[in-house]
Specification:
By secondary structure, the protein is α/β, with parallel strands linked by helices. The chain has 3 domains: 8-92; 151-304, Trna Endonuclease, Chain: A, domain 1, CATH 3.40.1350; 312-380. It contains 10 helices and 5 strands, in the order H-H-H-E-E-E-H-H-E-H-H-E-H-H-H. It has a 5-stranded mixed sheet with strand order 1-2-3-4-5. Helix 1 packs antiparallel against helix 2 and helix 4 (204-212) packs antiparallel against helix 5.
Protein backbone atom coordinates (compact mmCIF):
# COMPACT_ATOMS: atom_id res chain seq x y z
CA UNK A 1 0.00 0.00 0.00
CA UNK A 2 1.38 3.41 -0.98
CA UNK A 3 0.60 6.75 0.61
CA UNK A 4 0.16 9.93 -1.38
CA UNK A 5 1.68 12.72 0.73
CA UNK A 6 0.04 15.30 -1.56
CA UNK A 7 -3.41 14.08 -0.54
CA UNK A 8 -4.90 16.23 2.31
CA UNK A 9 -6.75 13.26 3.74
CA UNK A 10 -3.52 11.26 4.01
CA UNK A 11 -1.75 14.18 5.69
CA UNK A 12 -4.59 14.56 8.18
CA UNK A 13 -4.54 10.84 8.90
CA UNK A 14 -0.77 10.93 9.46
CA UNK A 15 -1.15 13.93 11.74
CA UNK A 16 -3.87 12.20 13.73
CA UNK A 17 -1.76 9.04 14.03
CA UNK A 18 1.23 11.06 15.14
CA UNK A 19 -0.78 12.82 17.79
CA UNK A 20 -2.15 9.51 19.01
CA UNK A 21 1.38 8.12 19.32
CA UNK A 22 2.41 11.28 21.14
CA UNK A 23 -0.48 10.92 23.54
CA UNK A 24 0.44 7.32 24.29
CA UNK A 25 4.05 8.36 24.80
CA UNK A 26 3.05 11.07 27.22
CA UNK A 27 0.76 8.65 29.05
CA UNK A 28 3.63 6.21 29.52
CA UNK A 29 5.84 9.04 30.71
CA UNK A 30 3.22 10.02 33.27
CA UNK A 31 2.90 6.46 34.49
CA UNK A 32 6.66 6.14 34.85
CA UNK A 33 6.87 9.50 36.61
CA UNK A 34 4.49 8.56 39.34
CA UNK A 35 6.71 10.34 41.70
CA UNK A 36 6.07 13.58 40.12
CA UNK A 37 3.71 15.90 41.76
CA UNK A 38 -0.03 15.79 41.50
CA UNK A 39 0.02 19.18 39.92
CA UNK A 40 2.11 17.76 37.06
CA UNK A 41 -0.36 14.89 36.70
CA UNK A 42 -3.25 17.32 36.56
CA UNK A 43 -1.36 19.37 34.05
CA UNK A 44 -0.66 16.32 31.94
CA UNK A 45 -4.27 15.28 32.28
CA UNK A 46 -5.42 18.70 31.20
CA UNK A 47 -2.95 18.60 28.33
CA UNK A 48 -4.23 15.18 27.37
CA UNK A 49 -7.79 16.53 27.37
CA UNK A 50 -6.72 19.38 25.10
CA UNK A 51 -4.89 16.97 22.85
CA UNK A 52 -7.91 14.70 22.75
CA UNK A 53 -10.12 17.68 21.99
CA UNK A 54 -7.75 18.73 19.23
CA UNK A 55 -7.60 15.23 17.86
CA UNK A 56 -11.42 15.24 17.84
CA UNK A 57 -11.39 18.59 16.08
CA UNK A 58 -8.89 17.28 13.56
CA UNK A 59 -11.07 14.22 13.01
CA UNK A 60 -14.15 16.41 12.49
CA UNK A 61 -12.18 18.62 10.09
CA UNK A 62 -10.97 15.53 8.30
CA UNK A 63 -14.56 14.33 7.86
CA UNK A 64 -15.66 17.77 6.64
CA UNK A 65 -12.74 17.89 4.24
CA UNK A 66 -13.56 14.40 2.99
CA UNK A 67 -17.20 15.42 2.46
CA UNK A 68 -16.09 18.56 0.60
CA UNK A 69 -13.67 16.60 -1.52
CA UNK A 70 -16.44 14.07 -2.27
CA UNK A 71 -18.80 16.89 -3.34
CA UNK A 72 -16.07 18.44 -5.47
CA UNK A 73 -15.31 15.06 -7.04
CA UNK A 74 -18.99 14.43 -7.77
CA UNK A 75 -19.41 17.92 -9.23
CA UNK A 76 -16.28 17.48 -11.30
CA UNK A 77 -17.49 14.06 -12.52
CA UNK A 78 -20.91 15.52 -13.42
CA UNK A 79 -19.28 18.46 -15.17
CA UNK A 80 -17.00 16.14 -17.10
CA UNK A 81 -20.01 14.01 -18.14
CA UNK A 82 -21.88 17.10 -19.31
CA UNK A 83 -18.77 18.31 -21.12
CA UNK A 84 -18.39 14.91 -22.80
CA UNK A 85 -22.06 14.94 -23.86
CA UNK A 86 -21.69 18.48 -25.21
CA UNK A 87 -18.51 17.55 -27.03
CA UNK A 88 -20.17 14.41 -28.47
CA UNK A 89 -23.20 16.43 -29.65
CA UNK A 90 -20.92 19.07 -31.19
CA UNK A 91 -18.81 16.38 -32.79
CA UNK A 92 -21.96 14.78 -34.20
CA UNK A 93 -23.07 18.13 -35.64
CA UNK A 94 -19.66 18.76 -37.15
CA UNK A 95 -19.61 15.23 -38.59
CA UNK A 96 -23.08 15.65 -40.13
CA UNK A 97 -22.15 19.05 -41.56
CA UNK A 98 -18.94 17.64 -43.01
CA UNK A 99 -20.91 14.73 -44.52
CA UNK A 100 -23.42 17.14 -46.07
CA UNK A 101 -20.65 19.37 -47.38
CA UNK A 102 -18.80 16.36 -48.76
CA UNK A 103 -22.00 15.13 -50.43
CA UNK A 104 -22.69 18.54 -51.96
CA UNK A 105 -19.07 18.86 -53.03
CA UNK A 106 -19.15 15.37 -54.53
CA UNK A 107 -22.31 16.19 -56.49
CA UNK A 108 -20.89 19.51 -57.64
CA UNK A 109 -17.64 17.82 -58.60
CA UNK A 110 -19.51 15.08 -60.48
CA UNK A 111 -21.62 17.71 -62.27
CA UNK A 112 -18.54 19.75 -63.11
CA UNK A 113 -16.80 16.64 -64.41
CA UNK A 114 -19.87 15.80 -66.49
CA UNK A 115 -19.99 19.31 -67.93
CA UNK A 116 -16.26 19.18 -68.52
CA UNK A 117 -16.68 15.88 -70.33
CA UNK A 118 -19.45 17.34 -72.49
CA UNK A 119 -17.27 20.35 -73.28
CA UNK A 120 -14.38 18.07 -74.12
CA UNK A 121 -16.68 16.14 -76.45
CA UNK A 122 -17.78 19.42 -78.02
CA UNK A 123 -14.15 20.47 -78.37
CA UNK A 124 -13.29 17.11 -79.93
CA UNK A 125 -16.18 17.46 -82.35
CA UNK A 126 -15.16 21.03 -83.16
CA UNK A 127 -11.61 19.80 -83.66
CA UNK A 128 -12.89 17.16 -86.06
CA UNK A 129 -14.92 19.80 -87.89
CA UNK A 130 -11.88 22.08 -88.02
CA UNK A 131 -9.77 19.22 -89.36
CA UNK A 132 -12.44 18.44 -91.93
CA UNK A 133 -12.78 22.12 -92.78
CA UNK A 134 -9.01 22.38 -93.17
CA UNK A 135 -9.14 19.47 -95.58
CA UNK A 136 -12.04 21.10 -97.42
CA UNK A 137 -10.16 24.40 -97.58
CA UNK A 138 -7.09 22.64 -98.95
CA UNK A 139 -9.31 20.85 -101.45
CA UNK A 140 -10.94 24.14 -102.38
CA UNK A 141 -7.52 25.71 -102.82
CA UNK A 142 -6.53 22.83 -105.11
CA UNK A 143 -9.75 23.34 -107.07
CA UNK A 144 -9.29 27.09 -107.38
CA UNK A 145 -5.64 26.75 -108.35
CA UNK A 146 -6.63 25.13 -111.66
CA UNK A 147 -8.53 27.21 -114.22
CA UNK A 148 -10.63 24.30 -115.47
CA UNK A 149 -11.69 23.14 -112.02
CA UNK A 150 -12.24 26.76 -110.98
CA UNK A 151 -14.61 27.21 -113.91
CA UNK A 152 -16.43 24.01 -112.96
CA UNK A 153 -16.71 25.30 -109.39
CA UNK A 154 -18.41 28.49 -110.60
CA UNK A 155 -20.76 26.52 -112.86
CA UNK A 156 -21.75 24.17 -110.03
CA UNK A 157 -22.45 27.10 -107.70
CA UNK A 158 -24.49 28.82 -110.43
CA UNK A 159 -26.47 25.63 -111.05
CA UNK A 160 -27.22 25.30 -107.33
CA UNK A 161 -28.51 28.89 -107.09
CA UNK A 162 -30.62 28.68 -110.26
CA UNK A 163 -32.16 25.32 -109.30
CA UNK A 164 -33.27 26.76 -105.96
CA UNK A 165 -34.74 29.95 -107.41
CA UNK A 166 -36.49 28.82 -110.62
CA UNK A 167 -38.68 25.93 -111.82
CA UNK A 168 -36.75 23.24 -113.68
CA UNK A 169 -38.52 23.96 -117.00
CA UNK A 170 -37.64 27.67 -116.96
CA UNK A 171 -33.87 27.32 -117.59
CA UNK A 172 -31.35 25.22 -119.52
CA UNK A 173 -27.79 24.48 -118.43
CA UNK A 174 -24.95 24.38 -120.98
CA UNK A 175 -27.26 25.65 -123.70
CA UNK A 176 -25.76 25.91 -127.22
CA UNK A 177 -26.75 29.07 -129.09
CA UNK A 178 -27.14 29.48 -132.85
CA UNK A 179 -23.58 30.81 -133.11
CA UNK A 180 -22.23 27.58 -131.64
CA UNK A 181 -21.28 29.13 -128.33
CA UNK A 182 -22.28 27.23 -125.20
CA UNK A 183 -23.68 29.28 -122.31
CA UNK A 184 -23.46 28.10 -118.72
CA UNK A 185 -27.17 28.83 -118.18
CA UNK A 186 -30.02 30.22 -120.32
CA UNK A 187 -33.13 31.56 -118.55
CA UNK A 188 -36.26 31.23 -120.73
CA UNK A 189 -37.83 34.63 -120.10
CA UNK A 190 -40.77 35.77 -122.26
CA UNK A 191 -40.41 38.60 -124.78
CA UNK A 192 -39.54 41.20 -123.70
CA UNK A 193 -36.78 40.87 -122.64
CA UNK A 194 -36.41 37.34 -124.03
CA UNK A 195 -34.06 34.49 -123.02
CA UNK A 196 -31.08 35.76 -121.03
CA UNK A 197 -27.68 34.12 -120.57
CA UNK A 198 -25.82 33.78 -117.27
CA UNK A 199 -22.11 32.94 -117.65
CA UNK A 200 -19.75 32.21 -114.76
CA UNK A 201 -16.37 33.97 -114.58
CA UNK A 202 -13.80 33.90 -111.76
CA UNK A 203 -10.81 36.33 -111.99
CA UNK A 204 -9.11 34.79 -108.95
CA UNK A 205 -5.40 35.29 -109.77
CA UNK A 206 -5.61 39.09 -110.20
CA UNK A 207 -7.67 39.33 -107.01
CA UNK A 208 -5.14 37.30 -105.00
CA UNK A 209 -2.28 39.43 -106.34
CA UNK A 210 -4.27 42.51 -105.36
CA UNK A 211 -4.71 41.20 -101.79
CA UNK A 212 -1.05 40.16 -101.52
CA UNK A 213 0.39 43.44 -102.84
CA UNK A 214 2.70 45.18 -100.36
CA UNK A 215 4.17 48.02 -102.42
CA UNK A 216 2.56 50.65 -104.57
CA UNK A 217 4.10 49.08 -107.67
CA UNK A 218 2.67 45.63 -106.82
CA UNK A 219 -0.70 47.20 -106.09
CA UNK A 220 -0.76 49.09 -109.41
CA UNK A 221 0.34 45.98 -111.34
CA UNK A 222 -2.33 43.82 -109.67
CA UNK A 223 -5.01 46.46 -110.39
CA UNK A 224 -3.93 46.54 -114.05
CA UNK A 225 -4.21 42.75 -114.27
CA UNK A 226 -7.63 42.85 -112.62
CA UNK A 227 -8.89 45.43 -115.15
CA UNK A 228 -7.48 43.41 -118.05
CA UNK A 229 -9.08 40.16 -116.88
CA UNK A 230 -12.52 41.63 -116.13
CA UNK A 231 -12.62 43.62 -119.41
CA UNK A 232 -11.79 40.41 -121.31
CA UNK A 233 -14.67 38.60 -119.55
CA UNK A 234 -17.11 41.43 -120.27
CA UNK A 235 -16.12 41.56 -123.94
CA UNK A 236 -16.36 37.76 -124.34
CA UNK A 237 -19.87 37.63 -122.80
CA UNK A 238 -21.07 40.58 -124.86
CA UNK A 239 -19.81 39.08 -128.12
CA UNK A 240 -20.83 35.45 -127.51
CA UNK A 241 -24.09 35.52 -125.59
CA UNK A 242 -26.00 38.59 -126.81
CA UNK A 243 -27.66 37.66 -130.14
CA UNK A 244 -30.33 39.90 -131.62
CA UNK A 245 -33.63 38.10 -132.08
CA UNK A 246 -32.46 35.07 -130.12
CA UNK A 247 -31.48 36.29 -126.65
CA UNK A 248 -32.28 39.26 -124.49
CA UNK A 249 -30.53 42.56 -125.09
CA UNK A 250 -28.08 41.86 -122.28
CA UNK A 251 -26.42 39.10 -120.26
CA UNK A 252 -25.27 38.37 -116.68
CA UNK A 253 -21.70 37.72 -115.57
CA UNK A 254 -21.78 35.55 -112.44
CA UNK A 255 -18.89 35.96 -109.98
CA UNK A 256 -18.90 33.01 -107.52
CA UNK A 257 -17.13 35.12 -104.86
CA UNK A 258 -18.69 37.88 -102.79
CA UNK A 259 -15.20 39.20 -102.03
CA UNK A 260 -14.30 39.68 -105.70
CA UNK A 261 -17.72 41.27 -106.36
CA UNK A 262 -17.27 43.67 -103.41
CA UNK A 263 -13.73 44.55 -104.57
CA UNK A 264 -14.98 45.47 -108.05
CA UNK A 265 -17.76 47.68 -106.73
CA UNK A 266 -15.53 49.30 -104.09
CA UNK A 267 -12.38 50.03 -106.12
CA UNK A 268 -13.16 49.34 -109.80
CA UNK A 269 -16.30 51.31 -110.50
CA UNK A 270 -15.07 51.96 -114.06
CA UNK A 271 -15.29 48.21 -114.80
CA UNK A 272 -18.87 48.09 -113.53
CA UNK A 273 -19.79 51.08 -115.72
CA UNK A 274 -18.03 49.49 -118.70
CA UNK A 275 -20.11 46.36 -118.14
CA UNK A 276 -23.30 48.45 -118.14
CA UNK A 277 -22.24 50.02 -121.46
CA UNK A 278 -21.65 46.55 -122.92
CA UNK A 279 -25.03 45.37 -121.49
CA UNK A 280 -23.27 42.87 -119.22
CA UNK A 281 -24.45 43.04 -115.60
CA UNK A 282 -22.18 41.62 -112.89
CA UNK A 283 -23.84 39.58 -110.12
CA UNK A 284 -22.57 37.75 -107.03
CA UNK A 285 -24.25 34.71 -105.41
CA UNK A 286 -26.42 37.00 -103.28
CA UNK A 287 -27.42 39.47 -106.00
CA UNK A 288 -27.89 36.60 -108.46
CA UNK A 289 -30.46 35.03 -106.15
CA UNK A 290 -32.32 38.35 -105.88
CA UNK A 291 -32.24 38.76 -109.68
CA UNK A 292 -33.54 35.21 -110.20
CA UNK A 293 -36.40 35.84 -107.78
CA UNK A 294 -37.43 38.82 -109.92
CA UNK A 295 -37.23 36.60 -113.02
CA UNK A 296 -39.43 34.03 -111.31
CA UNK A 297 -42.11 36.69 -110.79
CA UNK A 298 -41.87 37.60 -114.50
CA UNK A 299 -42.22 33.93 -115.48
CA UNK A 300 -45.22 33.51 -113.20
CA UNK A 301 -46.85 36.59 -114.74
CA UNK A 302 -46.26 35.30 -118.25
CA UNK A 303 -47.69 31.89 -117.47
CA UNK A 304 -50.75 33.48 -115.90
CA UNK A 305 -51.32 35.46 -119.10
CA UNK A 306 -50.89 32.30 -121.18
CA UNK A 307 -53.46 30.52 -119.07
CA UNK A 308 -55.92 33.44 -119.01
CA UNK A 309 -58.11 31.92 -121.81
CA UNK A 310 -58.22 28.55 -120.10
CA UNK A 311 -59.08 30.25 -116.83
CA UNK A 312 -61.95 32.11 -118.48
CA UNK A 313 -63.30 28.86 -119.96
CA UNK A 314 -63.09 27.15 -116.60
CA UNK A 315 -64.90 30.07 -114.98
CA UNK A 316 -67.70 29.88 -117.58
CA UNK A 317 -68.12 26.14 -116.97
CA UNK A 318 -68.09 26.77 -113.23
CA UNK A 319 -70.85 29.39 -113.62
CA UNK A 320 -72.99 26.91 -115.60
CA UNK A 321 -72.43 24.25 -112.94
CA UNK A 322 -73.48 26.67 -110.20
CA UNK A 323 -76.62 27.66 -112.18
CA UNK A 324 -77.63 24.00 -112.60
CA UNK A 325 -76.98 23.40 -108.93
CA UNK A 326 -79.37 26.25 -108.04
CA UNK A 327 -82.12 24.81 -110.24
CA UNK A 328 -81.72 21.36 -108.73
CA UNK A 329 -81.85 22.80 -105.23
CA UNK A 330 -85.15 24.54 -106.12
CA UNK A 331 -86.57 21.26 -107.47
CA UNK A 332 -85.46 19.44 -104.35
CA UNK A 333 -87.09 22.14 -102.21
CA UNK A 334 -90.40 21.64 -104.07
CA UNK A 335 -90.15 17.89 -103.54
CA UNK A 336 -89.54 18.43 -99.86
CA UNK A 337 -92.62 20.71 -99.64
CA UNK A 338 -94.83 18.13 -101.37
CA UNK A 339 -93.43 15.39 -99.13
CA UNK A 340 -94.18 17.44 -96.02
CA UNK A 341 -97.77 17.97 -97.21
CA UNK A 342 -98.19 14.24 -97.88
CA UNK A 343 -96.82 13.39 -94.45
CA UNK A 344 -99.32 15.78 -92.80
CA UNK A 345 -102.25 14.12 -94.63
CA UNK A 346 -100.95 10.67 -93.70
CA UNK A 347 -100.84 11.76 -90.07
CA UNK A 348 -104.48 12.92 -90.23
CA UNK A 349 -105.59 9.57 -91.69
CA UNK A 350 -103.57 7.70 -89.04
CA UNK A 351 -105.23 9.68 -86.24
CA UNK A 352 -108.68 8.95 -87.62
CA UNK A 353 -107.95 5.25 -87.99
CA UNK A 354 -106.67 5.17 -84.41
CA UNK A 355 -109.85 6.70 -83.04
CA UNK A 356 -111.97 4.17 -84.95
CA UNK A 357 -109.87 1.31 -83.64
CA UNK A 358 -110.32 2.49 -80.04
CA UNK A 359 -114.11 2.62 -80.46
CA UNK A 360 -114.19 -0.88 -81.87
CA UNK A 361 -112.02 -2.10 -79.06
CA UNK A 362 -114.62 -0.78 -76.51
CA UNK A 363 -117.48 -2.60 -78.41
CA UNK A 364 -119.29 0.63 -78.94
CA UNK A 365 -121.99 -0.51 -81.44
CA UNK A 366 -124.13 2.56 -81.05
CA UNK A 367 -124.44 4.79 -84.01
CA UNK A 368 -121.24 6.68 -84.32
CA UNK A 369 -121.38 10.41 -84.57
CA UNK A 370 -119.77 11.68 -87.77
CA UNK A 371 -116.13 12.65 -87.30
CA UNK A 372 -115.47 16.29 -88.29
CA UNK A 373 -112.18 15.20 -89.80
CA UNK A 374 -114.06 12.93 -92.23
CA UNK A 375 -115.64 15.96 -93.85
CA UNK A 376 -112.20 17.40 -94.46
CA UNK A 377 -110.52 14.41 -96.07
CA UNK A 378 -113.59 12.58 -97.39
CA UNK A 379 -112.65 13.07 -100.93
CA UNK A 380 -109.02 12.01 -100.29
CA UNK A 381 -109.48 8.55 -98.68
Amino acid sequence: MTLDLNDPITLLALCAGGLSVLAVFLLISVLRSASRSTRMAEYVASQMGGVTQRVQMLSDGQQQLFGGLTSVTEAQTKSQAQMLKLMEARLQQVTEMMNRNLTVSAKATAQSLGELQQRLKTIDKAQENITKLSGDVLGLQDILANKQTRGAFGEIQLHDIVSKALPSDSYTLQHTLSNGKRADCLIHLPNPPGPIVIDSKFPLEPYERLRAAKTDYELAEAARQMRTAVKAHIRAISEKYIIEGETADGALMFLPSEAVYAELHANFGDLIREGFAARVWTVSPTTCMATLNTMRAILKDARMREQAGAIRRELSLLYADVDRLGQRVENLDRHFGQAAKDVAEIKISADKAGRRARRLDNFDFEELAPDPADAIVLGRD
